[in-house]
Amino acid sequence: MKKTTTVSLSGSIFTLEEDAYNVLNGYLKRLEFHFSKEEGKQEIISDIESRIAEHLRETIKTQNQAVDINEINRIIKIMGEPGEIEGEENMKNDYQNDYRSYRRLYRDTDDKIIGGVCAGMGHYWRVEPLLLRIIIILLTVFGVFPGLIIYIILWIVIPPALTNAQKLEMKGEPVTADNIGKSFNK
Predict the structure, then answer these.
(1) What is the helix (H) or strand (E) element at residue 37, kind and residue range?
(2) Total-model pTM
(3) What ranges in 80-163 are assigned the alpha helix state H?
(4) If DSSP codes are grouped into helix, strand and coil, which group holds residue 7?
(5) CA–CA dist 117, 108 (Å, integer)
(6) For residue range 70-90, what is the model confidence (pLDDT) as tens digits?
(7) Do residues 53 and 47 lie in contact, with contact meaning Cβ atoms separated by under 8 Å?
């Protein structure tokens, strides 16, 4: 019988075995130390905690299931240790490319003209947003296709990329502790 601890990560409650809690707590403390001199330290840590909570929600099958140390180690391997040396980073990138090589569709509110729909679709399809904007304008002007109506519907349906983790997912970049930290410096 193992002791368990209940923790709250990003507003979600999880039950962790004691050794898993110790590993996760140590990881979060290393992250806090690594980003201690960063301007948006709390925001960076909050984004990383949100990402960890997302991974935990994906793997937990029942509400009362306790998370074991193997699951925490797997998540830490995906997220990466802060400030890894180059040799280890290449191995980590291979694992991450296997795990998360897809993009998620979000509106890019940083590169928006109206609502960020074309910019977000540009990231998703790896197409220049200007090309998509021109296509929407031409379809609207020539009336061949209700371009404006489709744009408004997409604006409503596609969620905006609000957090740095979502912005990394939108661009297809691995959501790791270092990448989240780097995105705050941009």
Answers:
(1) none
(2) 0.61
(3) 86-99, 117-125, 129-142, 147-157
(4) strand
(5) 7
(6) 999 999 988 888 776 334 444
(7) no
**Span 30-61, pLDDT tens digits:** 888 888 888 888 888 888 898 899 899 888 88
The CB-side HSE value for 160 (13 A sphere, CA atoms) comes to 9
Q: In what order do the strands lie in the sheet with 4-9?
A: 4-9, 12-17, 66-67
Bridge-based pairing state of the strands 12-17 and 66-67: parallel
Query: Per-residue DSSP letters for 147-176?
Result: HHHHHHHHHHHSPB--SHHHHHHHHT----
pLDDT at 118: 92
Domain ranges of the chain: 4-101, 117-157
Token pair belonging to 136: 């929407």
